[in-house]
């Protein structure tokens, strides 16, 4: 399975002063973001009955947090790709955010496939069962909300978890920085969000898994949720 590993145990900068000069003040979690979600998905997941082909025009885009509001971009230019990825990961540890990085080639594949297939569902295991998350991709952002929340609130459902991709170094360092924000910690833990990020990447970057994403978006009548469970080695509930 192709997974873009999230680094969470990297070496720190040589001193606290060096780190604080590299990064600016961390900005808090986003909240109250509105987005649109399509209606009827597929057999196997019960949601309101609407035409799956009648997609909404897309969520109201997230207010993109500039990279320079998070790091000293000029100083970042002096780092090697490996050091920059390490510093990025170290900065986010313990701050309620998820960090990762990926090669430019993989990002471009993700971007290309996401433009063609914007929606998918991923179950997150919780205790003795799973909670199904609905994801909507509009690069450079990915938004996750609970399927049950959508059933109750429709397009007013709030996101649980958002992901932003930063492409500033994709050409010079072959590196795309990724930041995830857990909006509702009561709905999703940091470890669950980390798993969700990695799993979402795997469904878009792994050729075999991506066939399920294509089926979900293009051949809804043939999509079976049990195939997603099988791909994730989760039991049928």
Written overview of the protein:
It is found in: Mitochondrion. There is one protein chain. With 237 residues, this protein is of the alpha+beta class. The chain is 33% helix and 18% strand. A 6-stranded antiparallel β-sheet has the order 1-6-5-4-3-2, sandwiched between helices. α6 crosses α7. The longest helix is centred in the C-terminal third of the chain and has 16 residues, at 190-205.
Q: In total, how many beta strands? A: 6
Uncertain residue ranges: 1-61
Q: Span between N and C termini?
A: 24 Å
- Quickly give the structural class: alpha+beta
**Order of strands in the sheet with most strands:** 1-6-5-4-3-2
Strand content: 15-25%
Q: Number of helical segments? A: 8
- Mean of residue pLDDT? 77
The share of residues in helices is: 25-40%
Order of helix and strand elements from N to C terminus: HHHEHEEEHEEHHH
Major sheet characteristics:
6 strands, antiparallel
Q: Assign an overall shape.
A: globular
Round the Cα radius of gyration to an integer and report it.
18 Å
Summarize this structure as a short list of keywords or feature phrases.
six-stranded antiparallel sheet; 18% strand; 237 residues; alpha+beta; 33% helix; disordered N terminus
Strand and helix map with partners:
Blueprint lengths: L15 H7 L50 H4 L4 H12 L4 E6 L1 H13 L2 E8 L2 E10 L2 E6 H7 L7 E6 L9 E7 L7 H16 L1 H12 L6 H7 L6
Antiparallel strand pairs: 1-6, 2-3, 3-4, 4-5, 5-6
Helix pairs in contact: 6-7
Keywords: Mitochondrion, Transit peptide
Family: Belongs to the ATP11 family.
Pfam family, one: ATP11
């Amino acid at each position: 399975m192709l997974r873009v590993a999230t680094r969470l145990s990297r070496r720190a900068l040589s001193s606290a002063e060096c780190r604080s000069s590299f990064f600016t003040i961390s900005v808090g979690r986003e909240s109250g973001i509105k987005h649109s979600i399509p209606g009827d998905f597929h057999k196997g997941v019960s949601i309101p009955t609407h035409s799956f082909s009648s997609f909404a025009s897309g969520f109201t885009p997230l207010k993109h947090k500039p990279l320079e509001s998070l790091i000293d971009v000029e100083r970042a230019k002096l780092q090697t790709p490996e050091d920059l990825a390490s510093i990025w990961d170290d900065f986010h540890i313990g701050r309620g955010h998820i960090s990762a990085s990926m090669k430019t080639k993989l990002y471009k594949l993700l971007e290309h496939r996401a433009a063609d297939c914007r929606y998918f569902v991923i179950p997150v295991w919780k205790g003795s069962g799973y909670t199904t998350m609905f994801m909507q991709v509009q690069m450079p952002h990915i938004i996750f909300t609970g399927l049950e929340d959508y059933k109750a609130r429709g397009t007013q459902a709030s996101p649980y978890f958002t992901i932003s991709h930063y492409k500033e170094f994709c050409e010079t360092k072959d590196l795309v920085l990724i930041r995830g924000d857990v909006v509702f910690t009561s709905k999703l833990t940091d470890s669950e969000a980390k798993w969700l990020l990695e799993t979402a990447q795997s469904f878009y970057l792994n050729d075999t898994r991506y066939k399920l994403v294509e089926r979900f978006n293009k051949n809804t009548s043939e999509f079976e949720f049990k195939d997603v469970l099988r791909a994730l080695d989760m039991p049928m509930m």
